């Protein structure tokens, strides 16, 4: 498993932006699918965005055009740029990594994002 540590959450007004970071020391991005999940109060955890080992990106429909997932291989860090934030984006955001072949998963502890309307 790989250690994942999120940062960058906070309180922002609707329409604002935040950038989440996920430090993953020692990770080899090419053998992992990595991404972000979120969980709103009283709701199930949902997938937000992923990057495959080859660099292909996926976004859930509700964030397309507003969020951008990226990774910095040298810095061993995953990012989630969130623009045009809405109140429904409020929740705990979790960094996630899955080894492509073994399918083992790692999770961060989460960072809270609160969007005020």
Q: Can you describe this structure?
A:
The chain is mainly β and 117 residues long. It has no helices and eleven strands. The chain has strands at 5-7, 10-13, 18-23, 32-39, 46-51, 57-59, 67-72, 77-82, 91-99, 105-107, 111-116. The strands form two sheets. Strands 2, 4, 5, 6, 9, 10 and 11 form a seven-stranded mixed sheet that branches. The chain has a four-stranded antiparallel sheet with strand order 1-3-8-7, with no helix packed on it.
List its traits:
117 residues, mainly beta, seven-stranded mixed beta sheet, four-stranded antiparallel beta sheet, 11 strands
Structural class: mainly beta
Low-confidence stretches: none
Separate helix tally:
0
Note the main sheet.
Answer: 7 strands, mixed
Number of strands: 11
Shape: globular
What's the mean pLDDT score? 97
Fraction of residues in H or I helices: under 10%
Radius of gyration: 13 Å
Order of helical and strand elements:
EEEEEEEEEEE
Roughly what fraction of the amino acids lie in strands? over 45%
- How far is the N terminus from the C terminus? 38 Å
């Amino acid at each position: 498993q790989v250690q994942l540590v999120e940062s960058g959450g906070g309180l922002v007004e609707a329409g604002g932006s935040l950038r989440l970071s996920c430090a993953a020391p020692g990770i080899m991005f090419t053998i992992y699918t990595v991404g972000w999940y979120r969980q709103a109060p009283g709701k199930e955890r949902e997938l937000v965005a992923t990057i495959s080992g080859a660099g292909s990106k996926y976004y859930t429909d509700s964030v397309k055009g507003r969020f951008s997932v990226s990774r910095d291989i040298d810095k061993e860090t995953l990012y989630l740029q969130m623009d045009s934030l809405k109140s429904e984006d409020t929740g705990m955001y979790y960094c996630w990594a899955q080894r492509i072949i073994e399918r083992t998963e790692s999770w961060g502890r989460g960072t809270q994002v609160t969007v005020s309307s």
